[in-house]
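Re: the multi-chain job from yesterday

Posting the exact lines I submitted so nobody has to dig through the queue logs.
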Amino acid sequence: MKKILFLAVLDLILFVLAASAQGTVGPIISEYSGKARGEFTVQNQSLTPMTVVLEPMSFSADASGNATFRPLDSNIHVRLDSMSARIGVRQQRTFSYEVNCEAFPCWLSIYTTFTGARTTEGLQIALHIPHTIYFCSKGTKGCRTKVHHEVFGMKD
Amino acid sequence: MKKYLAFLLSAVLTLAFVLPANAQATTVTSNVQTVNLTMTVGESLTIGPATPASISFSPTTGTASGNVSVPVTWNLSSGHTTFTLYAYFSTATALTNGSGGTVPTSSVNSTFTGGTTGLCNQAGLGGANTCATVPFTTSSTLSGSGSFTFGAWLSTGILASLPPGSYTGTLNFAAQAI
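And the result, structure tokens for all chains:
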């Protein structure tokens, strides 16, 4: 009887974990000057294979660092080697990208969306983690700080 | 003459054994070669698993089946010590039954422990469909983890007007360090 109860509880735990999305993205911030060609890695840390979807987004921030996101600005061009991928249990996938901007500095976030199991009623939970890119003209140092101070008016 | 040769041979043999022993005893130190060691540990941000993986609402009271716990693990560089945890909807429709019945984000109330409370129609990550947020400062702890509790409930005003059906939607959580 105890064995059955134990297996039932274990089954329930595995079901909950399998239905839940969990992911890691790194690095979370990259800075470039002159040429923005890089990559980031996405890890599926859940106990079920997962399809992740990438979405580049533009954002702005106020002086306190509160960001507001919007669809990618038309003067920023992002080329990703893939817009989505199926990642196995405890596996990872590295995405490569190239960014071209018509004006400097430019910045954006590439959001990775992890979605758990579908629900038939109520709200399903999806998780998003960004890889944020700061891109300045050639020779510029501290692109992120420059954008934070000179564009957003932040004092970090 | 034989004696002399025997002595000479003995002396040569003695030297042959002694000299290498002396040579071995001499300390010879080579130049020092160094090998540089490097390792890059990249910054990372982990979110999830959010539990439960879905929540449902009472059609009479609008209360949710429970709060959502959102764990976040971070490993950040100095200078990147803050991030914000957002809850949001991708569109202005929070829930739909697929045949005309909808719950707008303006009818979903939300709260984040340690963060803001408000309707899910604020500016932020989801355009104008952002719910509560938690600004979080890791202070001196550049590597760590925390769990954040999110609660949601529906405004009762919308419930009476909803046509029958199974309502579904997707609630998004995102951790953002800029």
